[in-house]
Write a structure and sequence with these properties.
The complex is a heterotrimer. Chain A is of the alpha+beta class. Chain A is 31% helix and 17% strand. The longest helix of chain A is centred in the C-terminal third of the chain and has 14 residues. Chain B is 33% helix and 25% strand. In chain B, the strands form 4 sheets. Chain B has a 5-stranded antiparallel β-sheet. A 4-stranded antiparallel β-sheet of chain B has the order 11-12-13-14, with helices on both faces. Chain B has a 3-stranded parallel β-sheet with strand order 1-3-2, with no helix packed on it. The chains are: A alpha+beta, B alpha+beta, C alpha+beta.
């Protein structure tokens, strides 16, 4: 049985017809062709499916699409707005922090959430905020360095 | 699968009358189980719109009534002096990962009753009371009796956890929650929740689905180690792919000593 | 970076970083094709069983089911690596829990899964063997009763449950041990590690009206996928095309595999596109792991620290199919001596079949296992000799001009320098106090590895505006090879990088490349690119010489696509003019291709006794060293890596930032191997660690906030740019360095991986 709903995705109203048990991740990727949000494990550990829900990090694989309601969803496709890149995206690119790139959208959103709440986090706060995002390629060093740079903190 | 989002508890109880209906709180545990094919409810009753399930009330004696839909993040952000609430906040801070803490709820977590979860240990240590609602009314169950097996609680069909009552704990008390896990954010191999007044109560997790509790321990190294050895000798914790039963028993005395001493050090003055 | 800056040695952002940062990059599961069906795989619930029947009528009758395939449909020859022991789906027998038995393509995933549930397979369970000893026990149940009849690329000495046996020896170890003053001996165990790339394996198999299959596939070689699918479908390669999608990590786990053939088969049968993307659980259960290993090792030295002899026996657990067990075993034996000039060495080994998913290629390829044992034992030897572990290593380290184990000359060797650099870096670093109540240890490991092997080619073409098109078969699996190849080509033509296009890998259009593996891409494909670029330059100079009426030897490249006459600033022609001349006047379109098979010297059978090695020559030796600081909680056994220094010789750092990223990422993946990662099976052969909830890879809080990459450049003389490789060595050094640091902190030697708190505490307890 499919449910009809209207979701607010990246400031746009999007109509969705999806099975009742569909996750927000399923709906984004399969119904709305917004494939920037990734399915890494589908059980809430890797963070590749991270989106912002009312501006706060959420694992879209653990979010029932039907339960989103009127809450605003921001995906990687909506992060840059009218620019080519947001400053978070730019910082990751410039720091050499992107290797295979599969974890990158999730990190972009987690970093965006962090810096919105705390524009100048220290290293501990940065690592804590990113603790739910797995990366298998980078060893995390350059990702954290990119955020430190944005935070105006220590950088080489 | 049907989805219903009632605005009142009464509506929720009625919605649960369908067979194989489950509550959806924050979804951080339930959705993972659904995605892995472990459960497939025919109806999900979302508690998101029931305002009476939200909110934290602080009572005059410093205890809390925590609405079941309170998120881990909201609990983690509590700055409270009373030892009981402080212990709960400490446990909330180390649940899983930031996104899970943002949306996961205490009610959903304890109803799920993962034997390696953090809240059960903290709730047993502080002697919390779980408030359970149904169409028939409200009942209260001490935390120690609420958890009865692996992913099993005393919740009956069509009952919902509505709130958790956390006593203030000892006056001028201190509390800590410490967990030993393979990686950060993982379930605990062994967890110890300690709340200290003149004496210490310690709850231990990782020793099966029901946290163990010892009370009235003196805050000295010897007393804590002794209590730890006694507990380790009297119980047989499970072994799993994270650690063996023998290892869990081996580390318990020192972990209890550390948690007990740290809780004692947290006492003001 | 301006147009005039040379590209090599700079660190321009990766070409595709913007796409990855914005979510535009297309990975396999992002691909949607009109009319696409969804595939689902039915897997074996038994670790070892005969298949005696299938019933698929109910599934076939379901609305929306468009194709079903079972082992009963397969009649062709077996496929595989050196030992062809595999079939696309289990045929006649299942050999591990999770082995694909049947597959369905349907209009959506729900129907596909319902159809799977309706397929009945009749099994007669057999006794499984789940470990090395069980598999080798006399009278053990055999996994491959027909092993002797299997086609083999190299005749091996497999028998019973032994897939392969091999040996390398130099000198006379028995005699040499008798001359030693100190001898240490020990047995080490390593576990099955999973690649745990963030993107699972999968593909979309498209089909055209004539039945030609095109796979959009996350993989490490389009040519391998093409070859394997063609083989398993019984089609010529001209009717199977593989195109690489963006790849979300590989590490050796995305080599050609049966799931590509399954998707292609279903697409061919249904005459519709089919998407087959594994769930995380299925990827853990179906694909590959690193070889668990048991390593017995004995090393002997004179009182003055000269190491005279080493004897090693390695048994690797290859799982249910041979896959790359023969070369992994061979490489482990080759690496067993380590970067030391030990004159008498014997390394013998076996690869064994067991009823678990197959083990195969994984970053390090046998070296992590060998080095964990060898480098751990070296510290034990140092203790027995009363020597500092670094001093012992320095005293025995290889030097340029030495021969590697097996006889290959090693003209370039900076083993000593790497060790000195990490030792000095740690000493010079600001002291970091240990965490309260923890014991601090500092540990070292020396690493040698090999970059190279097999064949590759590159083509450079000139476009009509003077832009250049570069084509290679080298798939970028996230390590940055796309950018490096373009840097080499752009540098060779003094062009800005934006004037070099780089096509994604397509088996119909790309020059052959063996695969992205073995730390070989920068050395092998990079070398092909460099040589092809030089040839293109020569061809352009020939045209320019005609245009300017001068001799080609007097010409020079100028930045920005210009060829000028040396010493005459005003006399020049542009690449565009050359291109137009070639297209419309004389000579025809300009293209240059260079292809080669690794052509360096290999083993020397006059020096070393070589038995059943799975390859004849290999590649270029590289060297490195690690130093780590750890804090150990000696009451719980918990280990925290606080800081690491990793020195690696890359020959020439074409993109230094990418080299750093590879070193840091390899170290953390090696740290996971060292401390927390283990695939575990229960007694029935079920994988109990089949999700990220149970298989724990390091997160940011588990990883040290400081991993200092130290890049050394000792150019390789056979490469026009001097480059070697970096992909694997940084993983190899992590576990032994951490083990040695734990020993330094506590006195306890842990001989099994992962070094979980339980294992570390047990080792500490033996000293109490």
């Amino acid at each position: 049985m499919k449910l009809h709903s209207v979701l607010t995705i990246n400031d746009e109203a999007r109509e969705v017809l999806a099975p009742g048990a569909a996750s927000l991740l399923d709906v984004l990727r399969d119904s709305l062709a917004l494939t920037g949000t990734k399915r890494g494990c589908n059980h809430g550990v890797c963070g590749a499916c991270t989106v912002l829900l009312d501006g706060r990090v959420a694992r879209s694989c653990l979010t029932l699409a039907a339960d989103v309601g009127a809450r605003a969803v921001t995906t990687i496709e909506g992060v840059a707005g009218v620019d080519a890149y947001s400053r978070v995206q730019r910082a990751l690119i410039d720091a050499g922090a992107i290797q295979c790139g599969f974890c990158t959208p999730g990190f972009v959103l987690a970093i965006t959430d962090l810096l919105t709440r705390n524009p100048h986090p220290g290293s501990e706060a940065i690592r804590e905020a990113l603790s739910g995002q797995l990366c298998r390629c980078s060893g995390y060093i350059k990702i954290v360095q990119a955020v430190e740079h944005l935070a105006g903190g220590t950088h080489e | 699968m049907q989805y219903i989002a009632p605005h009142s508890l009464d509506e929720a109880y009625r919605a649960l009358e369908a067979s194989d209906a489950r509550c959806l709180a924050g979804g951080q545990s339930l959705m993972a189980m659904m995605n892995l094919g472990l459960v497939a409810p025919s109806r999900l009753v979302s508690l998101r719109n029931i305002t009476s399930l939200r909110g934290i009330e602080v009572s005059a004696d410093g205890g809390l009534r925590i609405g079941a839909m309170t998120t881990h993040a909201e609990l983690a952000a509590l700055e409270v002096a009373a030892a009981g609430p402080a212990l709960l906040a400490a446990a909330a801070r180390v649940v899983a990962y930031p996104a899970v803490r943002q949306w996961g709820t205490i009610g959903g977590s304890i109803a799920h009753a993962d034997p390696s979860a953090d809240y059960p240990v903290a709730l047993v240590a502080v002697e919390a009371i779980v408030e359970i609602g149904s169409a028939a009314g409200v009942r209260q169950v001490p935390a120690r009796e609420f958890f009865c097996g692996f992913f099993e609680t005393v919740l009956r069909e069509r009952e919902i956890v509505t709130a958790i009552h956390v006593p203030p704990g000892p006056k001028h008390g201190g509390a800590v929650y410490q967990k030993l896990s393979l990686v950060a954010g993982d379930f605990a191999i062994v967890a110890v929740a300690a709340i200290a007044g003149p004496r210490v109560s310690l709850a231990v997790g990782g020793y099966g689905p029901i946290p163990l509790l010892v009370s009235g321990i003196a805050t000295t190294d010897d007393a804590l180690l002794s209590a730890g050895h006694a507990l380790a000798n009297a119980t047989v914790p499970p072994g799993d792919h994270r650690a063996s039963s023998a290892y869990r028993r081996r580390v318990l005395p020192e972990l209890m000593r550390r948690a007990g001493r740290a809780a004692a050090d947290q006492r003001p003055g | 970076m301006s147009d005039a800056d040379p590209a090599i040695g700079a660190s321009p952002p990766r070409l595709e970083a913007g796409d990855k940062a914005t979510g535009r990059a297309q990975y396999a599961d992002d691909i949607q094709v009109p009319g696409m069906l969804h595939a689902a795989i039915l897997t074996s619930p038994h670790a070892h069983a005969r298949i005696v029947g299938y019933r698929t009528d109910a599934a076939r009758a379901m609305a929306g089911v468009k194709a079903i395939v079972t082992g009963a449909d397969l009649t062709g020859p077996r496929s595989g690596g050196i030992v062809k022991d595999e079939t696309m789906l289990a045929r006649g027998k299942v050999r591990y829990v999770g082995e694909p038995v049947a597959a369905v393509a349907a209009t959506d995933a729900t129907i596909a899964n319902a159809a799977l549930a309706a397929i009945e397979v009749d099994y007669v369970p057999l006794t499984p063997v789940l470990g090395i000893d069980e598999a080798l026990a006399p009278g053990a149940p055999l996994l491959h009763e027909e092993y002797a009849a299997y086609a083999k690329g190299i005749e091996g000495t497999g028998h019973d449950n032994v897939v392969w046996e091999a040996a390398i020896a130099e000198g006379d170890v028995e005699h040499a041990f008798a001359q030693c003053d100190v001898v240490v001996e020990g047995t080490f165990h390593t576990q099955a590690q999973h690649h745990a790339y963030l993107e699972t394996n999968g593909c979309v198999a498209d089909v055209d009206a004539a039945g030609k299959i095109t796979l959009h596939v996350t993989c490490q070689s389009v040519h391998h996928v093409q070859q394997r699918v063609a083989e398993e479908l019984g089609e010529p390669m001209s009717r199977i095309r593989a195109i690489a999608t963006r790849v979300g990590g590989g590490f050796g786990g995305k080599h050609a595999t049966n799931i590509h053939s399954i998707a292609a088969w279903l697409a061919r049968a249904a005459r519709r596109p089919v998407k087959l993307v594994l769930s995380r659980m299925q990827d853990f259960e179906i694909q590959r792991s690193r070889h668990p290993a048991r390593i017995w090792i004995k090393t002997g030295a004179r009182r003055d620290g000269t190491i005279l002899a080493r004897d090693v026996r390695i048994v690797i657990d290859g799982g249910a199919y041979a896959d790359e067990s023969p070369p992994v075993l061979t490489f482990a034996l080759l690496m067993a001596r380590g970067p030391y000039r030990i004159p008498h060495v014997r390394a013998r080994g076996q690869a064994v079949y067991t009823n678990k998913l197959r083990a195969g290629s994984f970053r390090g390829f046998g070296n992590p296992q060998a080095s964990f044992a060898g480098e751990s034992q070296l510290d034990d030897l140092a203790t027995q000799l009363g020597m500092d572990p670094v001093a012992l290593r320095l005293a025995n380290a290889m030097v340029p001009g030495d021969l590697a184990f097996g006889g290959q000359p090693v003209p370039s060797c900076v083993a000593r320098e790497c060790l000195v650099r990490v030792r000095d870096a740690q000493r010079d670093a600001a002291p970091l106090p240990p965490r309260s109540g923890r014991r601090r240890g500092v540990g070292y490991a020396s690493v040698s590895h090999v970059s190279g092997l097999m064949g590759t080619a590159a083509t450079v073409q000139l476009r009509s505006d003077g832009s250049v098109a570069l084509l290679t078969g080298c798939v970028d699996i996230g390590q940055g090879s796309d950018t490096v190849m373009v840097q080499i080509c752009a540098d060779g033509l003094s062009l800005p990088m934006g004037r070099v296009s780089y096509a994604r890998q397509d088996s119909d259009a790309s020059p052959y490349n063996w695969k992205t593996a073995g730390s070989r891409s920068t050395y092998m494909t990079g070398r092909a690119v460099a040589v092809a670029t030089i040839e293109m330059r020569e061809k352009m100079f020939a045209h320019a010489a005609e245009l300017m009426e001068c001799a080609a030897v007097d010409l020079e490249l100028r930045p920005g696509g210009v060829v000028g006459l040396r010493g005459v600033p005003d006399l020049a022609v542009t690449f565009k003019e050359i291109a137009l001349r070639s297209l419309f006047k004389a000579g025809g379109p300009l293209a240059a291709t260079h292809g080669f098979v690794f052509d360096g010297p290999g083993f020397d059978p006059k020096r070393a006794s070589l038995r059943q090695l799975a390859f004849a020559n290999l590649g270029v030796y590289t060297f490195g060293a690690h130093c780590v600081e750890v804090d150990v909680d000696d009451a719980t056994g918990e280990v925290e890596v606080r800081r690491a220094w990793c020195a690696h010789d890359v020959g020439r750092a074409i993109n230094p930032v990418s080299c750093e990223g590879q070193i840091q990422g390899g170290f953390v993946q090696g740290m996971g191997y060292a401390l927390t990662e283990a695939m575990q099976w229960n007694e029935q052969g079920w994988l109990v660690t089949a999700t990220f909830a149970d298989y724990k890879i390091p997160g940011v809080l588990d990883s040290p906030p400081e991993i200092h990459p130290i890049i050394l450049e000792d150019p390789d003389p056979t490469h026009p740019v001097g480059a070697k490789g970096i992909g694997e060595p940084s993983l190899v050094g992590a576990a032994p360095a951490i083990a040695n640091a734990i020993r330094h902190a506590t006195g306890a030697r842990v001989r099994a991986l992962p070094m979980t708190p339980e294992r570390v505490l047990a080792a500490i307890d033996t000293l109490r």
